[in-house]
Amino acid sequence: MPARTWVPPGPYDLHRTLGVLQRGPGDPAFAVRGGEIWRACRTPQGPGTLCVAARPADGEVAAEAWGPGAEWLLDRLPRLLGEDDDPAQLTARHRIVHEARRRHPGVRLARTGLILESLIPSILEQKVTSDEAYRAWRLLLQRHGEPAPGPWERLRVMPDPRGWALIPSWEWHRAGVDAKRSSAILRAVRVARRMEEAAAMDLADATRRLTAIPGIGPWTAAETLQRALGAPDAITVGDLHLPKIIGYALTGRRGTTDAEMLELLAPYAGQRHRATRLILLSGITPPRRAPRFPVGDIARL
């Protein structure tokens, strides 16, 4: 069981930095226990489990890992935790952004270095509610993943590319995943090596690599690369809620479009995803006027 430590260069918020990797409550590949964050993933060296905990008294973050992918995970621990990220690159142009950064100085952008790990759940989140996507991810990992190495039996490692390709059509249906999304996942895993190469590219090239696959558009690419690359400018376009939240937080107006959101975020060019994260951390959202969108379940059809 190898272990490592990392000393953050300043204030550090472990849970908000790594929390974006969790795909909803009950994510089989991610768990929080006390002050520890547990993450099970499939690395180029095989399955691995990582346990990370902050030690404020020592001013460091400690990690342990298990499985064939343990050394790979620990070698990339500083990048995962945001060592290469520079929050100072953002200059606050709005009071809300300034206040959010003041209140959350330890938030950094995590960089997993793994594409499929973020791409597949992002595809599952296309055009459905978060609850539907989280349920699909949970069911698919529980039924087709494998037990994660290490002491926590609940954790599951997602299937390898061949394992995803062998999931029968009725299992996708049972998980509530329609043919459009399952087909996009299957196309991606057939060229898994080409997809994973994007982890070493800049944002523009990585986006082109991902969106060359039918069924993967700018929304899915941005959601993937925010996590895999820790890309500070990977702004999500095409989201149902994000433009409305950004517009309301920055102007107090409702009904902001994608184009208007991009105009509002133009002063943060190069840091638009970071600015968005800070705005979301402020908790300011437009008051709800309509009932929550109903959750569908195609598995019942």
TrEMBL record:
Catalytic activity of the protein: Hydrolysis of alkylated DNA, releasing 3-methyladenine, 3-methylguanine, 7-methylguanine and 7-methyladenine
Keywords, sorted A to Z: DNA damage, DNA repair
CDD domains, sorted: ENDO3c
Gene3D superfamilies documented for this protein: Hypothetical protein, domain 2 (1.10.340.30)
InterPro entries cross-referenced by the UniProt entry: Alkylbase_DNA_Glycosylase/TA, DNA_glycosylase, HhH-GPD_domain
EC number of the protein: 3.2.2.21
Transmembrane annotation, as ranges: none
Name of protein: DNA-3-methyladenine glycosylase II
Protein source organism: Streptomyces siderophoricus
Phylogenetic classification of the source organism: Bacteria, Bacillati, Actinomycetota, Actinomycetes, Kitasatosporales
